[in-house]
Structure formats: structure tokens, C-alpha cells
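Hi L.,

You mentioned the student needs an example of a multi-chain input paired with its predicted structure. This one should do, with 943 residues in total across all chains.
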Amino acid sequence: MTETGIGAPVRRTEDKRFITGKGRYTDDINVPHQTYASFVLSPHAHATINGIDTKAAEAAPGIVAVFTGKDVAEAGIGGLICGWMIHNKDGSEMASGAHPALANDKVRYVGDHVAMVIGETLEQARAGAELIEVDYGVLDANVETGKAKDKSAPQIHDAAPGNAVYEWAIGDEAAVDAAFEAADHVTSLDIVNNRLVPNAMEPRAAIGDFDAGTGDFTLHTTSQNPHVARLILSAFIGLAPENKLRVIAPDVGGGFGSKIFVYAEETLCVWAAGKIERPIKWTSSRADAFLNDAHGRDHETRAELALDKNGKMLGLRVKTVANLGAYLSTFSSSVPTYLYATLLSGQYNLPAIFCEVDAVYTNTAPVDAYRGAGRPEACYVIERIVETAARELNLDPVELRRRNFVAEFPHETPVIMTYDIGDFGASLDKALDLADYDGFGKRKAASEANGKLRGIGFSTYIEACGIAPSAAVGSLGAGVGLWESAEIRVNPTGNVEVLTGSHSHGQGHETTFAQFTADRLGIPMDQVSIVHGDTDKVQFGMGTYGSRSGAVGMSAMSNAIDKVIAKATKLAAHLMEASEGDIVFENGSFSVKGTDKSLAFGEVSLAAYVAHNMPEGMEPGLKEGAFFDPANFTFPAGCHICEVEIDPETGTTEIANWVAVDDFGTIINPMIVEGQVHGGIAQGVGQALVEGAVYDKESGQLLTGSFMDYCMPRADNLPSFKLGFTETVCPSNPVGVKGCGEAGAIASPAAVMNAVTDALGVKDVPMPASPATVWQAIQSSTKQAAE
Amino acid sequence: MPTVSMTVNGKSVSGDVSANTLLVDFLRETLGMTGTHVGCDTSQCGACVVHVEGKAAKSCTRLAVQCEGAAVTTIEGLASGGDLHPMQEAFRDNHGLQCGFCTPGMIMAGVDLANRRGNKLDEDTIRNELDGNICRCTGYHNIVKAIAAGAAAMDK
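Structure written out for the whole complex:
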């Protein structure tokens, strides 16, 4: 391994601009003659719109234009879409209520967009928005996940009777029933996966622009997938043909899923820029981000696990209600179905699984993919119930897991996944060693001597990443294929531009991809530039989410690099008058076996562009592309162990120790991979201990609408993490990588809550396990013990 | 409209502002210095931390006119010539950043922390002192390492 080769912890190329304040995020960009947009948002969770008076706003100083839902509807602009069709158990299609970019007759959650006010300055736009008079007819709000379908619950969309989006199921119900009849022991658990607000540190922003001379639109936006955004804005919303709409996602300050989706604001900035023939800039406030960025999670689940007397798992039955909010966001419908229930087998040889999911509308913000998207919810169900079962059976949770681990691959689960490779025992063993499991008893005793409660919790997680085989997701209802593209553009002087459809918003692609390409081509890393995030520069691509940029994006690069090397080898053979079979490409040099003849990569590329001496029939130039469509999902897996110490006087939980051992297959840059794991764990610990979006059950007001009310994990909520890796090389892509972006967020909530419940000796504590919640749990269990 | 004058990164600057213009908006909009970021509206996130008269300040919570005559340092002014400040170097070397959005505030807060609490900073001190800066990407693990290393390097 060289200093910058595959496997080296190369320092990041992109850091130079970020640490010197030279990053270029959307809000840093200003376009000449730009105007500013401010949106009027609904203050009510559920109300009819009886009228909107825009006169005072239109007459206010500096107001350029005011638009309402009526204007958007009259312009024939389509509503925001959900791109994944889910079918009900009876085969019928899910119910999907219309989602106009500006509400027409009704608002359906606090923050729903009612009017767009455009001003010469931001202050004027905001002042104008204050002058919009909306006559609302306030309706009762339908807020609670578990009660959304009650007969008395207010009806939100005419298209979705009873507020049901779909009633979906997967697995073999009869086989599960039989497994439960044969069971010696059944463990059941009612759990809630709390609603989260993504809170990427950079708020969303957009600048829409229109060139009246050419008819071209440009959108600068905070997107994880600019091509997908363009496709949706063009083909489904109907703003402009794809060839007349350029979408640029420059530096993006974190996404975590929330910047996958196409929202009302960027849609309207593009559309209205065409109307007023001037650029329009909009930047979200944090307050608006809380209201309007798609939230995550929000499941209520009952799970039952059937086991025999030896602790062998026989069957799993799961019933989940998933809250999708007031409208179906871009990929929302897939999250509690194919990204969730298909992972309920965990790392276990579970012969039968049946899962039903009822998705419901409520008067809350739309819910969609958030780091992990469905897989953290699945991991939480299976890892919490396995730990609970071990306690009920008086078995070591480690032992119960070992008895049930899948050990042979490929392994078909009862919920349509085929695990291609893994070694679950190896990651567990390594984690136990790093966590000093044998010393836990001593540490617990020491804590008790100090009046503290100590607990340990495990999470042996698996996830399906690298989404995904296009035909497979198509058969499951996806409206798009999930391949990725790459183009390797070798310049005459031998340096290289890599054009990728993946998008970096913190993941360090400019480093990892350059490191990979430089290693494969045997050239210095600084001779490789990564180009991404601009539909005018990069061929179509699907973007970054689902831990897919390595497994799918880099695989496309790998295949394109293969093509470059193949062409260059042919050309080198011709130039050195050798047979192609005698050419060896190594360390950036083409040499003829058994001779001292060789040509450097740059010499061959120059020859390809000078083109004075090409082989018969070979085109000049050295530029190759590839579209990679994976054969299977990838299956990162591993073991996280969390040890907590709880102060029973205050209910404060401190994470005393954290071990994570992950199998991500081949690792290109371990420094970056470790960083991804750290961040994922922090988000999972945030969910478990401090974060939770809360709506008032009556009014539907978001009670946790700022960083003062919604607790983000701070440095002092977290420990330093101990990480380890095991490696089974992924057989489903040419790079051997599995993906690492979401693992931490998937594994960690279950590890924390298994540790907290272990410390308290109770079956369940709701997330977030805040000091008040934990203190209450201690009081109730003490009271129960006394009774 | 009042005119405000101050020294930013060693240069005298002045501009017309509203009485309610925030320092961060003066930096970003009037001066075009976009290295200082805005991540919230409640003074919680710390993405906007700059130094005013050598001390860390949240530039979203200070009016531009309050800084009349003051010496302000932003992330753009931390490096001297071609050399990165030791804290910048430490963030890069320890992978203390991912998306980069909170980073300017983190680095400015880190320098301030070393100025206030010395060059030998233990993990607990750093974690406790960082409660005014939120990062969503890194889990703080490498930020803590970076600040310890950066503070130590500032001693040299």
C-alpha cells in the first residue's frame, strides 16, 4: 500500500477549502439582480383556506410578486410526487393525496406552504409575507400515529379514506402461525420508534434563475441528488424539459436523507423565476427547517418472537403503524416497507417472518428517509426483542445470538433478501474483546458501590445498502432504477477528471474517489479531480443515499477505469509494436513483458489525443463511461456494544463505553470510514437519549421547533468510540465494498436501549431516554417491586 | 442608515447597515465573507463563531453596530500568509470535519478554548466547553481530538 493507495488513511482533499472558509454552499452564492423569496406557512395543523388577501402585500415596498396556490394550479404546475408505489395486501394501489407546492383549498400541517412572496430584499419579502391575510377555517387535527385511523379521527385527504395510505404485508403468515403454535416460549414487545428531525447543519436553500434569451432555467440547490431532482422537476412537476433545466448542488452541508427530496421551495423558486424573469433566492431558517424538512422514523410496533426451549428462533410476527405525515414525500412510502420489513431477519436464521405495516396520514410534517431509513427501525425491533428474549430465558444475550446466527452464505431470508456474505461471529468476538465483556461484572459492582446503575447492551445489526438492483427495486414499486454512472475523462497530459452521479455532502468523495482512481491508474492522487453535483457537467446519475456511493458509484468508476485501461493497453501495444497480450500495466506504466520497453500512462494518453499513430479502427481520445447496476444489495453488518452508567438520583444516563466492530467489506480510506461510523453512532445515540420531535396532540403544533426545544447531541453527550473492523469482501460489486454511511445510526439505538433497560432491570423505556423518562422508569419499577 | 467601521482580519472596513443588521449578515452580505455560517436562529449551533477583540462571539447574536471600532477575526483571517493556523491544520489532520458547515465556528471556538484554558486540554474539558457548537456529522470524536492537538500545537 502506498501513502495514498487503497486502504491508506489519506487526509481529505476537500478540507483545505472548508477549514479556510472557502467552501461554497448554496447560500454563499449570489446572482446579479436576484430577488428574495419568503413563504407564508400555515400556523394551523388542519384548516380549510376560505380566502387569501394578497393586496396589502402586493402594495408593500419592494414586493416583486406574490403567488398563491391558485396561481400555481392555473399554471398547470404538477404537485410534489412520491416515487415509489406500494400495493396493499389486496393488490390495490396505495392512496396518495395530492401535494400541491402551494396549498389550494386546505392546509394539512403546521408549516404547509400557503403563499410565496418575492421581494427586492429579504427583509422586504419577509415584511410582505406578514401582510398576507389568510382566512382559515380551522379543523380538528389528527396527530397521533396510533390513532390516525380511528373512526373519530379527522379525515385529511379525500383520496385516502380513514387516513390509510396503505395496508401492506410481507412474509408467510401461515408459517409464522405454525411457528408460534410450536413454540416453547414467546417474547412480545411493544415499542415506539420516535420521530426525529434530520437537522443537517446547513439549512436547505435554493436559487432559481431563468434566462429569457435561451429559455434555460438554472437551480442551485442543497440536494443529495441533483439529477433526480431535475428529473422530478421536469418530468413530473412539469417546470421545464430536462435539457432546459440545469441543477447544481454545490457544497452541501450534510443531508442525512433530508436533502434527497424535492420540496415546495425549490420547485417554486424555479417556476417563479420564469414568471418574473429574475433570479430568486431562498434560504430556510432553522425554525422553518424544523417544520418542513421531512422528518424521520415515527413507528409504533408490536413484535412477537417465537423460540424453542433451546433458544432457537422459530418465527417473528411484527405489526407496525408508520406515520407518513400530511403528504407523501419523495420516497416516503418505501421506507416503512421495503427498507424496513426486509431487514427484520437481522443476523439470524429465522425460518418464518410475517410483518404487516399500516401507513397513515396525520397532520404532521411529511416523514421520509432519514439516515438508515427503515433499517434502524428494523434493527431496533429485532435487536430489542432478541435481548428481551434472552433475559426472559435467562440466557446470555451473546449466547442467544450465537445460537441463531446465519453462518452459511448465500442465505435467503423469509423477507426476500439474499445475504451474500458475512461473518457475524467474527465481528461479535472482536467486539466482545474490545469491550472487555468479561470485566463487565466488576465494572457493574464498582458502579453500584458508587450508587450508580450500570448496564450493557448489544446490537448485532445487518443492513441492506448500496441500493440497488434496478430490476429488483422496479418490481417492488420504485419509479426509478438505482444504478450509478461514472465517466473517466483522461486529458492529453494524463491527468484525469472523474465525473460521477454520486454527490458528496460530507462523505469525502473528492478524496476517496480520487484515491481509488489514482491507485487503479497508478498516477498521483493530485492528478485526479472529482466532478459532481452539476447536471450540465455530469452524465445522469442517481445521487447519494442508502450508503450507495461506494458500492454503486465507485463500482461504476471501476468499470469505466477498466475500459480506459483496456483501450490504453491496445494503444500501448500498437505504439511499442508488441502484442496486446504481452503488455503489463502496473504502477502507471505500460511495459512489454520480457523487454525494457515501457510507456507511462501520460505518454499513452497523449498519443491517444495526438492520434498520429492509432491502431486500425481505434478512435482518438481516452474517455470512457460506465453505468453500474448492482446484482444484489450489499449487507454491511457488525456488532455494537454500549455500556451505560445511570445516576438513579437524577435519571441521567452516561455512555461509559462504546465499541463498534463493522464489516464493510473492502475499505478504501479507513479514516473517512471511521468518521462515518462516529457520526452514525452519534445520531443513533441522539435518537436513543435526547432527540424526539413532539407535536401537541390537540393542536398539532410542533412543540420541539428549535434547538432550544429539540435536543441535538452535543459533545458532552457522547464518549470517544472504540472501533474495529472485520472484512468479508463483498462479492456483488467489483470494488468489494459494502457501504458505511448508515451503519452507526442503524445499530446504535438498540445498543443504547438494551443497555439502559439492562441497567434498570425493566422491559422497555421509551426513546428518548431523557433523565426525566429514566427517573420515571426507576420510580415505577421501584414502586412495582414494593407492591 | 448608520455606517459602521471595524477591522476585519486586520483590514479596515466600513459599510452602511440597518440598526438591526447582525454582525454575521454584515460579514456575509456586506463584505461577501461567506466563511462564517448561519445554522440556526436561536444562538445554539455556533456555526457563526468569530473572534471579537480576541474572544469568541456568536456573530448571529451581535449587532454590526455593536462592533463599531472593534477588531474582528473570521475563519478567513486565521491563516497567516500561506500557513494554516495550527487549529486548522489539526482539524484536517484529525478528520475533524465532514460536511464542513459547522467547521469555521468549531475552529474559531477551538482557538478560543485554547486561549482561555491553555494548551493542554483534556477530553472532558473540551467536551464540556463545546456545548455551544453543534456538529451533525462527526459525532465529535475527531473534533475533540483535533482541538486537543490544535491547542497543543498552538504552544509551539
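You could point out the following to them. The two ends of chain B are 46 Å apart (CA to CA). The mean pLDDT of chain B is 97.

Best wishes,
N.
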